[in-house]
Amino acid sequence: MPAELIRILLLVLISLIYALYDIFNKRNVPDLFVYASLAVGLLSTIAYWSYLSLYSIGIAVVIGAIGYIFYKGGQLGAGDGFELVTISLLLPIQPTPFLASIAQFGMPFILSVLVATGFAAIVIVPIYYLLIDGKNRRKIEKVDAKSMVKGIIILTVYLVLLAMIYLVRYQISLIAIVLILILAVSSMFMALYANEINYRMISFVYPKELERGDMIAVSIMKKSDLAYFTRAYEKFGRVADDQLIAKVKDLNRKLPVYKKAVPFAAFIFIGVVVSLLFGDIFLFIF
Fold it and tell me: What are the helix (H) ranges across 25-144?
């Protein structure tokens, strides 16, 4: 079996397991699996050593550094960061897509995955939180003027982009038009209902209910609450690590925590599959 095919099969399997843990295990991926998958990525790089191996390791280091920054900023789970590093190790270069004969120009595979992951999130998040998860929740509040302006601007940008593509190429495929319009509408709804979607991701819990890796919605905390927790632990921030939990676990005031946030690993899995089948989404559209 060709080396690349083995690495692709490992990639799909590992990203699928990450997604299943994220969905069915309350967004918690066991540390043992995280480290084991990272080891598989490193071993595959060593086992199939070539002129691309150092390039692969370099990409993984960059992705790891960026992932750590986003993790410390409360924008990405630690497991998600490790998964992205593993993906970059298993498949450093975007291969020829299975369902599209489009040149990929030797682009890093992880970039294709990140783009497709972002597209999936833009489409699925508003559908889930406004339609599926929202059926038995509070009534959706009216859109304020600021959000309305943002939504209109975003929709306009997409429509201008569509027009520019047509003017440059004098033609555009129906698939590309449909994809851009779906992204336009989804992005608009994300802007219109950003506050509502954010609210529906949050649960208010006592500090003793915090788990390592939980993301705290510091931006919506009252100044008095933020000061209260900062007095207990001066490094209080968006990420609940072991030190933060130990310092505030006995405090009797609730925290807004993203307990119902989207399973990002599921979006990464979609990004992996889409990238393998169709290649880089931007190249596929344009």
Answer: 31-47, 53-72, 78-90, 109-127
**What's the whole-model pTM score?**
0.90
Rg (CA), the chain: 21
- Distance between CA atoms of residues 234 and 81, nearest Å: 26
Tell me how far apart the alpha carbons of residues 252 and 230 are, in angstroms, rounded to a whole number. Answer: 14
Nearest to 211 by CA among 253, 240, 252: 240
Average pLDDT, the chain: 90
The maximal CA–CA distance of the chain, rounded, in angstroms, is 65
Please state the rounded mean pLDDT for residues 41-65: 88
Distance CA 125, CA 188 (A): 12
Determine the Cα–Cα distance for residues 213 and 143; give it in Å rounded to an integer.
32
Residue 198 in 3-state DSSP?
helix
For residue range 217-270, what is the model confidence (pLDDT) as tens digits? 998 999 999 999 999 999 999 999 999 999 999 999 999 999 988 899 999 999
User: Are the C-beta atoms of residues 94 and 107 closer than 8 Å to each other?
Assistant: yes
Residues sharing a CB contact under 8 Å with residue 280, sequence separation 6 or more, in sequence order: 94, 104, 107, 111, 112, 115
Dihedral in degrees, nearest 10, Cα atoms 110, 269, 151, 133: -160
Contact 14, 85 (CB under 8 A): no
Q: How many CA atoms lie within 13 A of 283 on its CB side?
A: 21
- The CA distance from 168 to 172, in Å, is 10
Kindly state the tokens that stand for 177. Answer: 């038009």
Flag the least confident range among 18-22, 91-95, 128-132, 159-163. 128-132
